[in-house]
Amino acid sequence: MRNVIDQVPKSLAIMGGTFDPIHYGHLVTAEAVRYEFNIDQVLFMPTGHPPHKSQENITHSEHRYLMTVLATATNSHFNVSRLEIDRKGITYTIDTIKDLIRIYGENVELYFITGADALSHIFTWKDAEELLKMCTFVAVTRPEYHKEELIEKVEIIRNYYQSKIHFLEVPALSISSTNIRERVKKGMPIKYLLPESVENYIYKFKLYL
Ligand code: ATP
Ligand code: MG
């Protein structure tokens, strides 16, 4: 199922995340990558059951999915995929990439966006080598993470795996979902950290209390 996208994009960037909740850091990053690499569509991919995050503390996938839909509704280049949240068992990125190739065809040019923190774990990912050959990686900066370290890591991965991986500096927004959850719990404002539609959704369903 190709979801709501009826035109086959030539290039597609996957923006994976827990999105618990999605915030402006994610949106600014995705838009910066889309523009820089002239990408047709960014597909936001809320995670299902990631091997490295404990499930108990993660908000139900349906809430995370809907918040991601609300946040991306105003950008015609953004879409949200249910692939990972609908898949049973532990989620591995390699399975998602293989599914996307099945859905969009062999010719689609795939990009995978990863933040400075996520990139550090790449060597522990399942079938990392195959994964790095199947799509172009874009490693983006994130406040609180050293830019120079990220550039170094990108170099190491590029040389070690002979893979296509780019570094991109994106506008620095010191926002994290963890911080937003903490702020809601403490009754502090979260306005201007995430789209208003997502803020209203959080209050409507009393998330993060
Ligand atoms: P949490 O605090 O729950 O881990 P998070 O804010 O880190 O949430 P994730 O859903 O874990 O958000 O992140 C998804 C992707 O977005 C990761 O690749 C992460 O590095 C990137 N990302 C998250 N926040 C930012 C930000 N402010 N700037 C740049 N990249 C970000
Ligand atoms: Mg995170």
UniProtKB/TrEMBL annotation:
Ranges of residues in domain Cytidyltransferase-like: 14-183
Superkingdom of the organism of origin: Bacteria
SUPFAM superfamilies for the chain: Nucleotidylyl transferase
A Pfam family this chain is assigned to: CTP_transf_like
Keyword ATP-binding in record: yes
Keywords of the record: ATP-binding, NAD, Nucleotide-binding, Nucleotidyltransferase, Pyridine nucleotide biosynthesis, Transferase
Reaction(s) catalysed by this chain's protein: nicotinate beta-D-ribonucleotide + ATP + H(+) = deamido-NAD(+) + diphosphate
Annotated metabolic or biological route of this protein: Cofactor biosynthesis; NAD(+) biosynthesis; deamido-NAD(+) from nicotinate D-ribonucleotide: step 1/1
CDD domains for the chain: NMNAT
PANTHER family: NICOTINATE-NUCLEOTIDE ADENYLYLTRANSFERASE-RELATED, PHOSPHOPANTETHEINE ADENYLYLTRANSFERASE
Its biological purpose: Catalyzes the reversible adenylation of nicotinate mononucleotide (NaMN) to nicotinic acid adenine dinucleotide (NaAD).
Family label: Belongs to the NadD family.
Protein name as catalogued: Probable nicotinate-nucleotide adenylyltransferase
Organism of derivation: Defluviitalea raffinosedens
Gene behind this protein: nadD
